[in-house]
Design brief:
Elements: H1 2-15, E1 24-29, E2 36-41, E3 43-45, E4 49-54, H2 61-68, E5 71-76, E6 79-88, H3 93-98, H4 107-117, E7 122-128
Antiparallel strand pairs: 1-2, 1-5, 3-4, 4-7, 5-6, 6-7
């Protein structure tokens, strides 16, 4: 679902300048190629950085890329922010996904959407290194 429907849709919208509150982009450095790799993700921003759920953990390309090189960029609105990403396998993924809901009443819905798309989720903390 994510790979063949959500990711291409978010990428296509981004190319024409349409941003959605439900997804942003993370840019990692390819662990083999060394080239920038972008993938749509849901991000929850705060003052110091952002939270993400790597829905397939170390079975996903971007999760493996972060393990090899934690330097990332994330799109926050129309601005690219630089940061350092850390995989947090001991974080409570269920509680974290509920925090992505825009309103507490929608927390079960947010959790359901994440659960439908994930296989081996890991929380990712991105700390901004720019100002």
């Amino acid at each position: 679902m994510g790979r063949y429907v959500m990711n291409p849709t978010v990428r296509a919208l981004g190319k024409v300048g349409i941003r959605t509150a439900f997804a942003s982009e993370i840019e990692t450095v390819g662990r083999k190629s060394g080239e920038p790799r972008r993938v749509p993700v849901s991000l929850l921003f705060d003052d110091q950085g952002a939270w993400a759920i790597c829905q397939h953990g170390l079975r996903s390309g971007w999760g493996l890329n972060i393990s090899a090189n934690p330097n990332v960029r994330v799109r926050q609105g129309d601005r690219w922010r630089t940061g350092t990403a850390v995989l947090l396998p001991d974080d409570d993924v269920v509680a974290r996904t509920r925090s992505f809901a825009p309103h507490p009443a929608l927390a079960p819905f947010a959790r359901g959407v994440f659960a439908a798309l994930e296989s081996d989720p890991v929380t990712v903390r991105i700390t901004f290194t720019d100002n």
